[in-house]
Amino acid sequence: MPNPLVSIDEIRAARDRIRGVARRTPIVEVGWPCDDGQAHDGRVLALKCENLQPMGAFKLRGAYNMLARLPPEGRARGVITYSSGNHGQAVALAASRLGISSVVVMPETAPHVKVDATRACGAEVQFAGRTSADRKQRAEELAAARGLTIVPPFDHEWIIAGQGTVGLEILEQRPQVRAVFVPVGGGGLIAGVAAAIKRSRPDVRVIGVEPSGAASMSASLAAGEPVTLPETHSIADGLLTLRPGDLTFAHARAFADRVVTVDDGAIADAVRWLFRHAKIVAEPSGAASVAGAIACGDGGHADTVAVISGGNIAADDFARYITL
After folding, report:
1. Which of 20, 46, 102, 145 would staple 305 via disulfide (CB 3.0–4.6 Å)?
2. Are residues 209 and 83 part of one domain?
3. pLDDT of residue 298
4. Does residue 83 register a pLDDT over 80?
5. Residue 215 and residue 223: Cα distance in Å, rounded?
6. Known catalytic residue: 48?
């Protein structure tokens, strides 16, 4: 049977496809954080700032790569996706750039900042339940009724290839890199980043970071197959996935060195630390990688990159985290 894992050539083709739409985001150096929240002794943590994408998160890479590959008849029918926020915004923006109509199914608990941004890109927003399963079911019903093409949030080779372009950029911008920390929800980002890095530089470690209250990838890797959690809870709303995808799980098992978990307190501390010491606005999901790097003490001897996957956060929530 064909290899289900995304190739380096597919990731390179995605890079060419998304050029001029998704930004080549910068890597920013900041002094390594110590226990008292300060920076000290010359060690550096490098931050890959995907929060600076046009819609505020890495998701634009995979969404645009997939929509750009749709045949004319698929574009004409329109697309639909299900998302807690960032993927929905990405699909809405990519669809608007390509002249495609879009529908986004979001949870009833979706942050207003993400709902408003999705609508601002011209998408129709529908609401369904609180879990990814609720959203997926509603999206499938609407797709069948209207003839829409479903754009999965993470478990598709075109999505994974698009997200893998983050890994290519890290290797080009930071050739001395030794370790990369990546937030993990459904697994699309770590699947793509790990595939890009390990197929190019197998010596570089790739570490996934999950909230302890939504550790579906950790549970799945321990079980040797995708596992569905009974529930999830975390301030990192973009990482609340009950089950990783089949493809994303296969990539994580093949390419990721390990997946660690961090609690909400550590994630909130990372949001605050990023603002105070790097002047970066990161949503909790995007700051999870920094929390993981700090928890692992991964600095000094190795050149470490943490992917800041997104910065879409309501002003009042952000103010609460940075003033704790």
Report:
1. 46
2. no
3. 64
4. yes
5. 12
6. no
Catalytic residue (one of 83, 84, 234, 309): 309
Domain range for residue 115?
A: 59-150
Q: Is 59 a catalytic residue?
A: yes
CA distance 283 to 287: 6
Catalytic residue among 48, 59, 114, 198: 59
SS3 59: helix
The string of pLDDT tens digits covering residues 252-279 is 999 999 999 999 999 999 999 999 999 9
CB 239 within 8 A of CB 283: no
Domain annotation covers residue 3: no
Q: Report whether pLDDT(222) > 50.
A: yes
DSSP code for 96: H
Short-list 115, 162, 170, CA closest to 305? 170
Q: Are residues 166 and 143 located together in one domain of the fold? A: no
Do 298 and 175 lie in a common domain? yes
**Phi, psi (rounded to 5 degrees) for 282:** -125, 140
Regarding whether 47 and 65 lie in a shared domain, the answer is no
pTM of the model: 0.93
Claim to verify: residue 172 and residue 34 sit in the same structural domain: yes
When mean pLDDT is compared across 2-6, 9-13, 65-69, 162-166, the lowest value belongs to 2-6
Summarize the confidence of residues 156-181 as an average pLDDT. Answer: 97
Q: For residue 113, tell me if it sits in a domain.
A: yes
Give the chain's domain count.
2
Cβ-contact 156, 66 below 8 angstroms: yes
Q: Examine residue 300 and state whether it is found in any structural domain, yes or no.
A: yes
DSSP sequence for 18-38: HBTTB----EEEEEEE-TTS-
Domain CATH code at residue 199: 3.40.50.1100
Measured CA to CA in angstroms, residue 203 lies from 130, 216, 305, 320 at distances of: 40, 26, 14, 40
